Amino acid sequence: MFFITYLRRELRCRMRQAVFIALGLALGVGLVVTVAAASAGVNKAQSGVLSALYGVGTDITVTGNAPPPHYSSAGSTQPAKVTPPSKNGQTLQISPGGGAQICDNGHCVNAAGRTYDRLIPPYQEPISASTVAVVARLHDVAAAAGVLTLVDSAITYPANSAGSPQLATFTVDGVGTGHTPVGPLAAATISSGHFFTAADSHADVAVVDSGYAASSNLKTGSTITINQVRFTVIGIDTQPQETSPPDVYIALARAQTLATATKNLGGSVANTVNLIYVAAASAADIPVVQHEISRRLPGDIVTAAGSLASQVTGSVSTAARLTSDLGKWVSVLVLIAAFAVASLLTMAAVARRAAEFGTLKALGWPTRRIIAQVLGESLATGIAGAAAGIGLGFAGAAIIAAVAPRLSATAPSSTIGSMQQVIQAGGTALGNRTVVVPLSPSITIGVIVLAVILAMAGSLLAGALGSWRIARLRPAGALALVA
Predict the structure, then answer these.
(1) Residues 89 and 208 in one domain
(2) Which end of the chain is more exposed for a tag (fewer CB within 10 A), N or C?
(3) Weakly modelled stretches of the chain, pLDDT under 50
(4) Residue 407, domain member (yes or no)
(5) Does residue 61 belong to any structural domain of this protein?
(6) Are the beta carbons of 62 and 135 closer than 8 angstroms?
(7) 289 and 148, same structural domain?
(8) What pLDDT score was predicted for residue 330?
(9) Residues 232, 323: one domain?
(10) Residue 294 lies inside a defined structural domain of this protein
(11) Overall pTM > 0.70
(12) Is residue 327 classed as helix, strand or coil in its secondary structure?
């Protein structure tokens, strides 16, 4: 009890010194907390990017390899064709001179004033739908979902030769009608209507993303034309802000039926998918699962989120480098400076209290008791510095959240180009996909604990140096300083 009373009296008598030491520690700790919060925000942004490119909860994706070109590209002397597998399918022929014809069951007409509407899968080999079940049964795989990614492209040719063809496209995902923890609808919430039911497997119904619904003036009950078939909108879904979802979702079985009529490059897509989302049981299992899938599916491309992260560029990557390199070293330097200031102030205070400590020794206080008293004062100052540092860290994180611009990230992705690109280039356009995400610094319990530990370490270091001076203090020399 006397220890606490004496400690409180000494801190009150030396309030200015205690405040300076606490503020020095608080500045160092506050910067560390701010940098850690910013780093956590960048990591969260990177996770958002990978979720947007990969799908929420997805650790690994499986896609088919691109097959060799099946038909002529731009500049060829032969007409370019997209040939359906069924005899009743529609084709588009473009002559070397630029003339376009729409053919149906061998009967061709001039494309002027007409619309050629097709649902096109990517330029890659399809994957058998049964493969999804094989992957889902692998050890350490928590869930797997197969998706058929498509693009509906409609080319409308003008009635006269003066105008240019008008292209309208939107993305379509064929998904399972049951809920899975991975896939494009894993993190979606329904804002109007409802999701698919088992009865919708072969029905002409669709769920539309809220962004596309707003831009296209669609709502529950509206109709949308996909590959010349009218679909009824049964639901409007909302995805997390940082994701980049497809425009329209339809049942996987229905998508396979519609896309089969186009036979784009990779052949018929009946009973196939072209993208498999995989979630591992734990992060530690991802390399094992990736290796096992690659062994089972040697002809397909198996990619883990970590390998995609290394290809991400843009302001997210720049911010990550700043927080991990510059921010880390600045934090270390400021901490060293804060600890040095605290230590110097404590040692100076001990030197000024030499007479006091000499008197206490002369009264019978052992050296260890005086050292404990100095360490106690330093520890109390460290607690105050930790509290102030955490407050400064929260303030710094709030300022970053208020003034920081939205971050962008660009990653290479195989996306569907326009119908004209498919016809002219002999496949889908390979490009980059850019995602914009907000920077939201976050302070976790771990960061707060780290701040407290750092403040305590700094204060105890200062107290230890001061105690070293006390241990060397002789009572007779100290008493000579008493006025």
Answers:
(1) yes
(2) C
(3) 70-88, 261-266, 413-431
(4) yes
(5) no
(6) yes
(7) yes
(8) 65
(9) no
(10) yes
(11) no
(12) helix
With a CB cutoff of 8 Å and minimum separation 6, the contacts of 272 are 126, 127, 128, 129, 148, 256
Structural domains counted in the chain: 2
pLDDT in tens, 291-319: 999 999 888 888 876 665 555 555 555 55
Can you read off the two tokens belonging to residue 183? Answer: 């896939």
Residue carrying the six token digits 């991975």? 182
Following DSSP, what letter does each residue of 272-311 receive, concatenated?
A: EESEEEEEESSGGGHHHHHHHHHHH-TTEEEEEHHHHHTT
Structure tokens at 472: 């060397």
Classify burial at 302, counting beta carbons within 10 Å of its beta carbon; exposed 0-12, middle 13-18, buried 19 or more. buried
Same domain, yes or no: 402 and 474 = yes
Q: Dmax of the chain from CA atoms? A: 117
Q: Smallest Cα–Cα separation from 428: which of 164, 82, 103, 115?
A: 82
Q: CB burial class (10 A; 0-12, 13-18, 19+) of residue 385?
A: buried
Question: Over the stretch 445-478, which tens digit does the pLDDT of each residue have?
Answer: 887 887 788 777 877 777 777 777 666 666 555 5
Find where tokens 């038909």 sit.
71
Domain boundaries, position 290: 66-298
The mean pLDDT value of the chain amounts to: 74
Give the domain-ending residue among 270, 298, 326: 298
* Among candidate residues 121, 255, 67, the one with its CA nearest the CA of residue 177: 255
